Predict the 3D structure of the following.
Amino acid sequence: MKRRTIVVILLVVLATALAFDLYLPVKKDFRQFDPAAVGRLDAEMWRSYYEKRPVRLFFQLSRLMRTQFHAPYIRSHFIAYQSAKAAFVFKEGRNRIQYAGALPYLKTYFSQLNDLSKVPFNFFKLAEEELEWWIIRREGEKFTPSDWEAVLAREGEIMYSIPKENFMDYARDRVAAMVLRDQKGQSITEQDWQTITQMCISAWTKFHAVVQPRISSAP
């Protein structure tokens, strides 16, 4: 009887903790993040995607959700699932109709991020831009790196309400890293991945500088 009581208490505590994690309102300032950590994770997630490692990508995404978007522990895994699922649904696509199968997961992903953000953003539009970004990367013969840069800059504008022109330096660095990965293809080396990581860190450092609040020097 005593053991059963302990089990019941533990289950109640667990259920309460789960409810708090999933449903307690959390509002965070997305301008506050570690750009070097994001850059490293960005490169690591690319590698997991191209090496077809969905489980590793999932745990990297959940870590990103906790450490940079400040999501509660359990919720971070639910959010990460939506992003990882979108990525691998897209990966199996062969045309725009099939690629669109990733959009519902992207909309859910960005909706859940919006729920965490102090400043709301148009998550429907952001999901559409993210899918377009994936598509033009896939259809490289139809688009140029300048087109990639434009989409990345627009995403920054949508999420942070800062003119897209301000994000162009970030976009150029991040696209340059992607171009390098594409050029290397199957022959990519550890040294190449280290170079890509440094390029991603540079990109996110520039992004971070753009989104920081401006302090007026006026008296």
Observations:
- Residues 11-17 have pLDDT under 50 and may be disordered.
